Amino acid sequence: MLTGSTGAGKSSTINALFNMDVAKVGVGVDPETSIIEKFILDNLVIWDTPGLGDGVENDERISRSILEKLNELDEDGNPLIDLVVVVMDSSSKDLVTSYELINNILIPALGDDEKDRILLALNQADVAMEGTHWNEETNSPDEVLKVFLKKKADSVRNRIKEATGLSIRPIFYCAGYKEEGGEQRKPYNLTKLLYYIIKSVPKDKRLALADNINNDEDNWLHDDKETDYKEKIKSSFGETMWDCITDGFDAGVEIGGNILGIPGKIVGATVGSAVGAVKEVFVTIFNR
């Protein structure tokens, strides 16, 4: 589930991550998503919630809808929502609406494993500090903006820890966006965001992520280089592939070359499909 204030960039985040324009991106002041929208990617479902901050009555209605969804169980009796991604505007000085959502609604509703089921994402890093410290050539923040964004992330973490006792440090990134008649801005730190999403969802749903990943290579070029996120993504999908193999399936299928160091024939049509999905991620993100 994606939640956040109006204009924080939930829809552009969905569009940047996945290989389709599944959500209309707003460039005006009116929220584009007025009800909780459902996008089905194989066995993975994305819930895009309306933006908060457009009036008390509207916010209360949206908050009730979010709580209802968080309290739903799947057919196995597990929570329907595996992960809540809270999209916040890193260029905004007023994050009160986001804090109220996180501290008073999401964390109390997520239960004992709340820290593992919530991801804080500070979007629009490119326009923080009025965009004056964004390097267009490298598509990255300069040193001044890096310091600002890290302080912003620390501030958010501290505010939430004071209210809930949980220490959750946000990821800052830029999803990119399309303006009327303009070009798509290149994302930044999207690979990092994808890694933390993959890490947080059940293994049986990771392949749906792989099969629907945005195939625009520019989306995955730029990140903060604090760690090798691509290698971590590779490792996460490798674990998933190994689980598929060791589960044991019927018919053998041929795959070409080496995928994750596994050569030749792999057992199971389901595994073959998984290999195809993961191979597509490698072509898109790893350029090979």
From TrEMBL:
Name of the molecule in the record: G domain-containing protein
Organism in which the protein naturally occurs: Kandleria vitulina
Pfam families, per database record: MMR_HSR1
All residue ranges annotated as the G domain in the record: 2-123
Source species, domain of life: Bacteria
GO molecular function: GTP binding
